[in-house]
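**Reference record**
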Amino acid sequence: MPRGRFVGDRPVGSRPAGSRPVGNRPVGDRSGGEGSTGLERLQAGVAILIAVVVGAGALLASAANGDRQAAVREEIKRSAATIEDVRLVYGDEAPLAFRIAVARLRAEELRRAAEQAGPDGSAAAVEAVVQEQLAFGLATGEQGTGRLADGDHYRTDDGGFDVGGRLADVRADYPDLVALNPDGSQADADRLGRAAWQLTAGVAVLVLAYLVVAMSWHWHRRRTYRPVAANLEMIPQPWQATPGRRDATTVALLVWILATLLPWPQLYFADQEQQSQALAARDAARISTELASSELREGFVAESLRAQIALSLGSLARELGALDVPEEIASQQRVVAAADRAVEPRVEAVRNAMIDLPTARDGVDLAARSAVASTPAEWKGLQVEQNRQADLADRASRRSDRMVLAALLSALAASLVALAAAATRPSPVRLWAAVTLLIGSLVITATALLG
């Protein structure tokens, strides 16, 4: 009797009669073949498609972050330009122009009063010359500068100056800065950021579709299917593994699913963080712009009011001073005081026109109009919104960090389960360590999603 081991009446290692070897595998082995090759192609296609989707989402997120940074830079540039333009007009040119306007108005009224008073108008005539020289001297220094008080370009019919028109012209000197549109850049960034995480969310659809197709494939081939001893697929398939390796392959599949889905919420939270940070930075720039611009205009309002009050008090002081001097002098001073009282309504009208808020009819852009017209209530509202956006950014940052930690744990779990599956005898310690890391990753992900 021949020596050796037999299975039934056939020696171990022999082929059944009529079977042809294909490589090292008999034709009767149905664990691979065309069906297995087709599934491997499906796995490769899904893996590549997932990589492309996640990569495209990351590129879109990067572009969104770039646009948000551009929006912040544009806001800062616009802020600096607005403050400088408002400072030039309201802080530098308007006060001097108002002094010139008041001097000219007083000179006109004093000249008229002197002519009507006859011999008693000599003091008024002298004061008229003083005011004319004052106006001339101040205006001479502005000639050729193109500023508010230069010539008659900005002179108005009431004797004042067109402050709103001057502000519009100053703004028009730098059209590129006026044309800055940080809101548009922010909107573009938000659209890109939204597209990034929405595209990445499509990975869930790909994963679900793959699982349905792969399980359907296995279901239709279950009669001719034989479990394989090793899981060499790019995507783990517990239904194809031998019973001894099925647990490790199941854990590996769960880790793969989690790892492919984690980029979606991570990109979402990162997008929210960047969006809120950009809005908070822009709000800070707007607060500084509105504070500075409004205070510059209010400074001119207060200075012109003091000049108007000083004119009114001066006429009253002349009346009181005339009580203690000889009548000849007193009568002349009363003429000057009367002229100053008569010019007060004209000065007030000029002042009201020059301190009026600039409008669109003046040609002033919305950003400058809003900054000059801002109020403390609006500053407070911006500050509250800035703090809210800063809090949202901080919260989104913490959630994004948790997603990064969850991804790290899932990567470690994938390494451990790969080692466990590759061993000749699956290691329970490695497998349970991978399960523990997987559970930790899931818990961290859940806490991040729930806030």
In short: The longest helix spans residues 33-117. The two ends are 76 Å apart (CA to CA). Residues 1-35, 228-232 have pLDDT under 50 and may be disordered.
